[in-house]
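Board notes (copied after class):
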Amino acid sequence: MKKFIALYGKTTLFIALLFLSIEQQVFAAEISEVDYLEKITTWIKAAAKVGILLISVVAFVWVSWIILAKFNEARKNGEVADVILVIIVGAGVLVMLSLLLSTANTFIV
């Protein structure tokens, strides 16, 4: 201790002891590991729900884009049957996707 005081001075010793006491108070006030795990699992569940929503939105935009492209193509060629078929298949894909994602959402909760 005398070497430390001689080498660094009393002010440095005081600051080091002050930081040590503050650090002990901060660690004493921290929450336990169980609370950290609960927070992490809550964040993961929220991120999974946002991911499910993102997948749904992307699928809806993708199917809508395909339908609009087919409609534009049918306007030029006069083939309306292709547009109707794409609408029916796209609606089926969206229904199946929403069913699967809602099932996944119930497992997350």
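Comment from the instructor: Residues 1-30 form one domain. The chain has two domains: 1-30, 33-108.
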